[in-house]
Design brief:
26% of the residues lie in helices and 14% in strands. The protein is built from 19 helices and 22 strands. Strand 9 and strand 10 form a beta hairpin. The relative contact order is 0.11.
Length: 750
């Protein structure tokens, strides 16, 4: 493998496997193109990521360094022969003390197993750092022992140390010599290598080098190889790497990434996106029969990468971080000075947060919602035979991932990964939490508090600032003693979550930073790509409408999926389209149902039984001033987790209506409690409380940063002492007539 210092960056030419193809989309009318699709003017991505940045050809490419985002490597000896910091506990001891999970603790935001599963699939597209005994060699030529000691005589993983090998690094680094980088001399610390492209480009589907890319193709009709059952190819007769510590590579499925066989669920997701490529290839060939194999392959590959970007930015990140914090695809502005490469802190610590959300079992669920089987993690690891023998399990796994709630994102990891990863104790089983902690040390990551500072957060000065639970505070203090000694992985998991999010401040900061750079530092990001916005491309697939649920249903027999599979089916998510003719959106709970309606027609766009819905999430348009009206005072025991409203952009108004009975309404920003149903809000400029009766009780505890107005049902402003003045707010309408209109809309929908 070429090292970063002598790496040959090849521009793809016509004679190469993947020619540099250019695409210009002509206007299309009717079912057939008016003229043949011309493939001569628009560049496609290279397979290895080179050439994306026209200033630095190798930036973000495969086989280049992961970067340190403004922070130094922190090795006890300065350069990386030594990794364990004096006074910092043994990684397995930390895991036993603070990461052991005895009972299931599901997350409190209705996030499904797709959060972890998409996160795993996605990170395999963006980073691969390999490890092995070869990299345990020190700068002196000696071979170091980096295994993790088992200190507890009763530890099920003992008595022998847990094996740990170090990560591949640029061989020109990791020496005690001082080097001058232009900012003065510093230690020549180890710099780790990313074997795959940093960009979100579906490299885990297609590969990051020409040899693997070729091995996955049929070279007919632009398609990828699959088995007869629509699974990944099982033949690896070209000797390509396949990551499994127990089986020969030829016995495993072959994919664009070497880790595709880690679990049967991951393998199933790989199969899903290979099927999607082939579905697109068929569609392209049907629409543009003049295109050849290479042209169809490249166009389908371009679209699959864009679909992965759309799912990541429009569904995964908003579900995880909250719609206000997540970087938005539509905000992309390409900046050639922005380095999209993966950071060391992201790959070696922070994006590993998802390990705490893994369940003990994978569910296999049929279209009727019945769990037909469950696989324990030890059964799911590295077992390609399961899918070979049960190809229909792809459908069951897709449905299961969409139904089961993920574990809470916290310090706890289930036993299946904390004691039994890749095997039972004493027979290959290792501790993923301990490996994550030690990997951060192997990569020379700064401590938790220092990393916070490097990402623009204030340093914490007490353990109570990390987590509000006194028991966790005591555990952290007992383990580390010093607030400036905590491993980044541990501190990140320990943090209290931000409001409306499933992560704490450090995870949020690192993810927002990384995914903003992956968006704005990618010359081919889909919202900046005029070809993907062309009428030709939209005839193939409309990326504005792509969701993971649609890709699943296009390529499997799965039915009855919720629109957003990152939330469980009890959550109704509605994003206000920018194309709405009206800026008004209504949410009404009455007559045992919850309805979402558009203000331009009063027609319901979604209706569901309150028996089936626990929460409604409304996301305003990012480009306009929205008025979102919520009438849920009559929910009568439904919507137990209430309504969440994200204004998201513009000057947005939230109107909360009372009912025809006597209501109790309490405003305590950022939420309103109306008869026990909670309406949470974020980035709302004006909150209008519109009680239904004169004798309704309205209390304002805290307005926060929102302008709060209380109005009676006739639109008159109610003073804080109970008097009335003023007139209707914009968008203000009586609640009772609104409910009648939506009842009519429900009847029409039926």
């Amino acid at each position: 493998m070429p090292t970063p210092t002598n790496r040959l960056c090849v521009r793809l030419r016509a004679e190469n496997l993947e020619p540099r193809i250019l695409l210009a989309a002509d206007a299309i009318d009717g079912l057939e193109p008016q003229s043949p699709l011309d493939l001569s003017n628009v560049e496609f991505r290279s397979i290895d990521g080179s050439g994306n940045n026209l200033v630095d050809d190798a930036q973000g490419a495969a086989d280049t360094r992961v970067i340190r985002f403004g922070y130094p490597a922190v090795y006890p000896d300065g350069h990386g022969d030594v990794v364990d910091v004096e006074g910092r506990p043994n990684a397995r001891d930390i895991s036993n003390a603070i990461h052991a999970q005895s009972d299931s603790v599901v997350n409190d935001r209705h996030l499904t197993d797709w959060i972890f599963q998409w996160g795993q699939f996605l990170t395999h597209d963006m980073d691969l750092t390999i490890n092995g005994s070869l990299y345990n060699e020190l700068s002196t030529g000696e071979v170091g022992d980096f295994s993790i000691a088992i200190n507890d005589p009763n530890d099920p993983l003992g008595p022998n140390p847990m094996p740990f090998n170090r990560t591949e690094f640029d061989p020109t680094t990791g020496t005690p010599d001082l080097i001058d980088t232009g900012f003065g001399p510093r230690a020549n610390w180890r710099e780790q290598i990313n074997r795959v492209t940093s960009y979100i480009d579906a490299s885990n589907v297609y590969g990051s080098d020409a040899e693997r890319a070729a091995a996955l193709r049929t070279f007919e009709g632009g398609k990828l190889i699959t088995s007869a059952d629509g699974l990944l190819p099982g033949l690896n007769d070209v000797g390509l790497d396949n990551d499994d510590p127990f089986r020969a590579g030829a016995e495993l499925f072959l994919a664009g990434d070497v880790r595709a066989n880690e679990t049967v669920a991951l393998t199933a997701v790989h199969a899903l996106f290979v099927r999607e490529h082939n579905r697109l290839a068929d569609r392209i060939a049907e629409l543009y029969p003049q295109l050849n194999d290479e042209e169809i392959y490249q166009l389908a590959r371009r679209i699959v990468g864009a679909e992965m970007q759309a799912i990541t930015y429009n569904e995964f990140l908003p579900a995880l971080l909250g719609y206000d914090s997540a970087p938005r695809a539509e905000d992309a502005v390409y900046d050639a000075e922005l380095n999209a490469s993966i950071t060391n802190s992201f790959a070696a610590a922070i994006f590993r947060f998802g390990h705490s959300m893994i369940n003990e079992d994978l569910l296999l669920v049929d279209n009727a919602g019945h769990t037909v089987d469950r696989l324990s993690l030890d059964e799911a690891f590295f077992d390609p035979d399961f899918l070979k023998d049960n190809p229909q399990a792809v459908d069951l796994l897709m449905k299961g991932l969409s139904e089961q709630l993920g574990q809470e994102n916290d310090l706890l990891l289930v036993d299946g990964v904390r004691n039994n990863l890749f095997g039972p104790p004493g027979a290959g089983g290792v501790d993923l939490a301990a490996l994550d902690i030690e990997r951060g040390r192997d990569h020379g990551l700064p401590d938790y508090n220092a990393l916070r500072a490097f990402y623009g957060l204030e340093r914490v000065t007490s353990f109570a600032e990390i987590n509000s639970d006194p028991a966790i505070q005591q555990q952290l203090e007992a383990l580390y003693g010093d607030i400036d000694n905590i491993d980044a992985f541990v501190g990140a998991l320990a943090e209290d979550h931000l409001s409306g999010s499933s992560v704490g401040p450090l995870v949020d900061a690192v993810l927002v930073n990384q995914f903003t750079r992956l968006r704005d530092g990618d010359r081919f990001f889909y919202t900046n790509d005029p070809e993907l916005a062309s009428r030709d491309a939209k005839r193939i697939v409309d990326l504005e409408q792509v969701t993971l649920a649609k890709i699943i249903q296009w390529n499997t027999g799965v039915t009855d999926l919720q629109d957003n599979v990152f939330f469980d089916p009890s959550v109704l998510v509605y994003e206000v389209p920018a194309a709405h003719r009206s800026a008004e959106t209504y949410v009404v709970a009455s007559s045992g149902q919850v309805s979402i309606a558009r203000g331009d027609s009063n027609r319901a766009v979604d209706v569901a039984s309150l028996d089936d819905i626990s929460q409604v999430i409304i996301v305003g348009s990012p480009t306009r001033n929205d008025t979102i009206r919520v009438a849920v005072a009559a929910a009568q025991g439904g919507l137990e987790d209430g309504v969440i409203v994200y204004g998201r952009g513009g000057l947005d108004t939230l109107i909360v209506d009372g009912s025809t009975r006597r209501d109790t309404i309490v405003v305590d920003a950022p939420q309103v409690d109306i008869n026990g149903t909670v309406v949470q809000f974020s980035t709302i400029d004006e909150l209008v409380v519109s009680p239904g009766r004169e004798r309704d009780r309205v209390s304002i505890v805290d307005e926060g940063d929102t302008d709060v107005t209380v109005r009676d049902g006739d639109g008159k402003r109610r003073d804080r002492d109970g008097g009335r003045s003023g007139s209707r707010s914009r968008g203000d309408r009586d609640a009772a007539p609104l409910m009648e209109e939506l009842d009519g809309a429900r009847r029409r929908r039926r």
